[in-house]
What does this fold into?
Amino acid sequence: MCFSRFVSLALLASVSGLHAQTAKPRARDLGIPIGGTAGPLDAITDVPGVEVGHTTLIAGEGRLTIGKGPVRTGVTVIHPRGKTSNDAVFSAWFTLNGNGEMTGTTWIEESGFLEGPIAITNTHSVGEVRDAILRWQVGKPGLQPWGLPVVAETYDGGLNDISGFHVRPEHVIATLDGARGGVVPAEGNVGGGTGMICHGFKGGIGTSSRRVTILGTQYTVGVLVQCNYGSRADLRVAGVPVGEEIADLASCVATRDSTLLNTARGRRRPCSDMGGDDAPAPVEQEHEMGSIIVVVATDAPLLPHQLKRLATRVSLGIGRMGGVGGNSSGDIFVAFSTANSGAASAQGVTPVQLLPNDQINALFWATVQATEQSILNALLAADTMTGANYFRVYAMPHDRFLAAMRKYGRLKP
It folds into this structure.
């Protein structure tokens, strides 16, 4: 595909954030009993001011040619206070397992502030995305003339020509400019999540929210995930062993080409339509690997040390879904609060508000529940994808998923 088509795809994906692009139902549409009360959108954009944009790059098929494709990748951007604001937010980050990257976290740790957008992409495009954000920032009147952008990654090298460096500055800038608030961001095979795999199914981007009332005031916690982690056997949803119930539909190679089936690491598994079968994947292929990036937003007045506590609770939501933070997994989370506007001002002493520690348990629960539901929403929205070297990853089948939930009494018959 020519580069001009890439730019067209970027512009389309960046400005089209409505979930209605995908007709698939989300977790709350299906009545999955994860708990808590979602906001109107059930998305990170329920937090006022938050904007999300995606650029999705899909091109080519067949044998991998580095630099040409197939391409299955992209970039996702979150603006804490919207694209036009230069007002920093209190922030903190946490890593469950550090086999991954999130730039800019040293300054978050030191200062307690996030001073720009957060972007998520593939492992080999972190530098390109980081530099593009800087170009975008310094070109905006009134925005900070220097920066340490926060850019995170997960690895899409199974489906994508990851070493072809297909995410370009134009794509990042289009995403930054096209981000929107007030709508449900697209989920599944979009943005940075385009080529990702989650619990052995097609994964990607997912989002959710929860609303809680503390001391008479309602607050929102919103979560967005890029999920590319976990083994099939460990997948749980609301306590149901979904991975055990749908143990087949393992990833495979959709070709009869022997040069692609027989590799130095052994014979690859052909898909059923290419003479293979749909039996469960061999046990040795079912180990915990991959990564997950999670962004937590809230309008509750929390200081950095409290946001750190919120970020750590993301681990519990991942654990409820069956993730264990394996050695090969990069599980990195960032949390921010849109309260306390102007707290980063350099002029004089700035008064700030905070909730007492004794009152924030409800926010912990909200983070856990929204994380769990965001991962599930990513799985529900994703479509089966065939990428580089005919590698295919199946979407989680809704009918069989719902049958498993009913079997264990978690949905009405």
